[in-house]
Specification:
The protein has about 140 residues and is α+β, with helices and mostly antiparallel strands. The protein contains four helices and four strands; from the N terminus they run H-E-E-H-H-E-E-H.
Length: about 140
């Protein structure tokens, strides 16, 4: 039997704080969502000025990154590349850049999804959050 890593409350708080700090450093009004490996919401922060829709998009990006165990941008690229039938894939909701899986020793622990600014900036915030726990 293998040992399974998982996100602890302290990890989630550290990720959320670092992601928020990155967003505030650039004055980016975003929503930050953190999910576990099954895509279940652990944390949601809607920063001042973030559009209401971002509170739906960020968790969807995180959910997709966690279940797919890859960045949500990959799905956006597949669709933009012409494979629009992928839009019918079950449980894949946030197929936009900004969802980043949290990987440790080849295992997906969860994901961070960010929405509110340019997609590459959303991903930058998510990655800054993940870096806070040394991954």
């Amino acid at each position: 039997m293998k040992t399974k890593h998982f996100l602890e409350t302290a990890d989630v708080k550290a990720i959320a704080a670092a992601a928020e700090a990155e967003a505030l450093k650039h004055n980016w009004p975003v929503t930050i969502a953190i999910v576990d490996d099954g895509g279940h919401l652990l944390s949601l922060q809607r920063l001042d000025g973030a559009a209401p829709i971002s509170s739906h998009i960020a968790p969807a990006k995180a959910h997709t990154a966690a279940l797919g165990r890859r960045e949500s941008k990959i799905y956006e690229d597949v669709i933009n590349g012409g494979r629009i039938s992928f839009l019918s894939a079950p449980e894949v909701k946030g197929m936009l850049e900004g969802g980043v899986p949290i990987i440790k020793e080849g295992q997906c622990l969860g994901a961070v999804g960010v929405s509110g600014v340019k997609s590459n900036e959303d991903a930058q915030i998510a990655k800054a959050g993940i870096a806070a726990i040394g991954l």
